[in-house]
Design a protein that fits this description.
Length: 319
Amino acid sequence: MTLHVRPCGAAMALALTLLFSSAQAGAPQQKTQTPGYYRLMLGDFEVTALCDGTFSMDAGKVLTHITPLQLDAALARSFLKDPVETSVNAFLVNTGSKLVLIDTGAGTLFGPTLGNLQSSLKASGYKPEQVDEIYITHMHGDHVGGLIKDGIPAFPKAIVRAAQQEADFWLSKAHMDAAPADRKDGYQSAMSMLNPYVSAGKFKPFSGDTELVPGIRAVANPGHTAGHTLYVVESKGQKLVLWGDLMHVAAVQFPDPSVTLLYDSDSVMAAAQRKKVFADAAGQGDWVAGAHLSFPGIGHLRAAGSGYTFVPANYSALH
């Protein structure tokens, strides 16, 4: 004898709910990104943008020559609000004979959301020991912090290069001793990252505008720091200008290049340099890349009234 039992309505509803929930259970959210790199060809050179991560920038506290209302309006036009999540980018240039890294990210100096340069580099197909030379735009921590890993040089075979004026400023104990208490850590960070290369004879500063390897030249751009430097990469008539910290908040400083930064060593000079470089980029149609443009931070600049519009690189999977 078979006994058939029909569950009551409530019990059946509960059974169906449990069955449906089990069948449709969602996977846990991962909340991570893959190691970030983006590649393009510049003539015969391969350029790889490397993501070190992002950090939260309190634009209202660090931007100068702008009112709070102007700042909020500029950010809103780009669907942003303060604080602004800001990228830290570095760039790897393979000339065919040299592998050159421009800037190294923040390492462990700026907290857990940064310091991803090594993983991005490896994901892109390269190894730290393959890097021949490292060019530093300036010695703020988010540009030199990746030079050292676990207390030793992160790029064991690389020669590190930066402007002599930048080295004279940041690697000077006398300058550090004379600095205000809240600025001393900048000197300490620069020294801790650069001095192991200095001691090993692998730090070779340069002076003025100069070609460092065929196809890559340094161009003095003082203002943000005393020895802030742009690097110009050229191959087969194509040109890419690597800006370093020429600008920090795209939504604000592209439409109004006169907006400056609290950390500029000479804000008047920094604004003048930015206006000149922006005008050159828009007029010549060169590729540009910025350390704090939203990753991958590569594109072109177009004049727009009294300011400019940034046009990001069109994504391509072709090589």
